[in-house]
Amino acid sequence: MLLRILFLTIAGDLFDCVDMYKQPAFDHPLLKNHTLQLKPSSLPKGMKLAKSKPVSFYGFNDTCPLGTVLVQRAHKQDLNDSQLLRNQFRAQVIADDRSTEGGHYALLQTLRYQYYGAYAKMATYKLPDLHSGQSSSNAIILFGDAPTDGLNAIAVGWQVSTIIYDTSYPRFFTFWTDSKTGNWWVTYNDQLPLGYFPKELLPNLDPNANFVQMGGEVISSSKVPSPPMGSGHPSNEGRNKAAYFIQVQFVDQSNNLFVLDPSSFTPRADIKNYYSVADAHFEDHKDKYVFAYGGAGGFK
Ligand SMILES: *[C@@H]1O[C@H](CO)[C@@H](O)[C@H](O)[C@H]1NC(C)=O
Ligand SMILES: *[C@@H]1O[C@H](CO)[C@@H](O)[C@H](O)[C@H]1NC(C)=O
Ligand SMILES: *[C@@H]1O[C@H](CO)[C@@H](O)[C@H](O)[C@H]1NC(C)=O
Q1: pLDDT at 74 (0 to 100)
Q2: What is the Å distance from ligand 1's center to 35 Cα?
Q3: Of 132, 123, 138, whose CA–CA distance to 170 is shortest?
Q4: Is the pLDDT of residue 296 over 90?
Q5: Is the CB of residue 88 below 6 angstroms from any atom belonging to ligand 2?
Q6: Which of 10, 60, 61 to mutate to test ligand 2, by most ligand atoms within 8 A of the CB atom?
Q7: Dist CA 136 CA 103 (whole Å)
Q8: Which pLDDT belongs to residue 260?
Q9: Among 17, 42, 149, 242, which residue's Cβ finds the most Cβ atoms within 10 Å?
Q10: pLDDT (tens digit, 9 = 90+) per residue, 157-175?
Q11: Domain residue extents for the chain
Q12: Cα(47) to centroid of ligand 1, in Å?
């Protein structure tokens, strides 16, 4: 199974600004003939992109020169480069097998349908110290069926680290397939296109995803208590105490955003006493679909 994740974290990592046409992604054999798409050719209806890049993006003030992209340094000790940026912001793309040991989740899964995108605003919280090797994240994950070899999945979300903010901060993601190119675009806060997942790498997400998951996931070794998820409060404490997603929406074939009703979602949590997902419902017109998730952790 193939999983590609764009996780944004605040972590003091190191970056290089690399010529966009020479970025390491193009070393992938399936991207040999890929033409770099500079901006989306279509957007979900009602969405508008900002005219220019914001000056600051989550404390990330320095941006790469025009024509270059940020590439995270693989090794932190590798410090010797003039084009190096040190910042609080981290964008990470992981190509990995998802059958992680010690992974736990509390999320909502949609019924099967043709999803051409997904949209949500998620609150992200500072958490107490995590042990090394642990992570706690929230994400939107799109899955495409494969006839024989399982699933393709792509995800965007936030991996929460200890050094983020003192208060919750809601962040948007929109995720949709570009009707001309078939690439899966990701924008942040409705305005900033972060980039795309090339369709060549995601044959089973062509032309659409088959189901979507949204919620929290932690990873922890069995030797230490598992970390908190969301805000560290269980979902039954409700929105604002527990972490939450609001404005949960999906994109149809005609690029329209739509809302699913609560019966279209299945709550899934592997260790319910530790991490839960609940309270999924419509609210007012503005927040549309809302659900809470999370837990204190402590599973061993
Ligand atoms: C790239 O294009 C060439 C020529 O059309 C073709 O033979 C090759 O299979 C393509 N490679 C990929 C990875 O699509
Ligand atoms: C980014 O710029 C703002 C405003 O100038 C400043 O307050 C903030 O500390 C800067 N962030 C970093 C990480 O340098
Ligand atoms: C660091 O860069 C300088 C100047 O380019 C070079 O002389 C030096 O060998 C580099 N050091 C390492 C450890 O790569």
Answers
A1: 58
A2: 12
A3: 123
A4: yes
A5: yes
A6: 61
A7: 10
A8: 93
A9: 242
A10: 877 654 333 344 455 567 7
A11: 2-294
A12: 35
Nearest to 74, CA basis, from 93, 54, 49, 96: 93
- Structure tokens that stand for 9 in this block: 């974290």
CA of 28 relative to ligand 1 center, distance in Å: 13
Sole residue written with tokens 């901060």:
169
* Number of Cβ within a 10 Å radius of residue 100: 13
Please, what is the average pLDDT of the chain?
77
**Residue 285, both tokens:** 């017109």
Q: What is the DSSP letter of 34?
A: P
Grouping H, G, I as helix, E, B as strand and the rest as coil, residue 11 is coil
Contacts of 58 (CB under 8 A, 6+ apart): 8, 10, 88, 89
Residue with tokens 């992938």: 28
- The model's confidence at residue 152, banded by pLDDT at 50, 70 and 90, is confident
Question: In this predicted structure, what is the pLDDT of residue 56?
Answer: 55
Residue with tokens 């040999």: 32
Residues 6+ apart with CB under 8 A from 154: 3, 4, 5, 141, 142, 175, 184, 197, 202, 205
Tokens of 3: 């999983």
Q: Which ligand is nearest to the CA of 83?
A: 3
Q: Atom 2 (ligand 2): residue with closest C-alpha?
A: 61
Residue type, 43: L
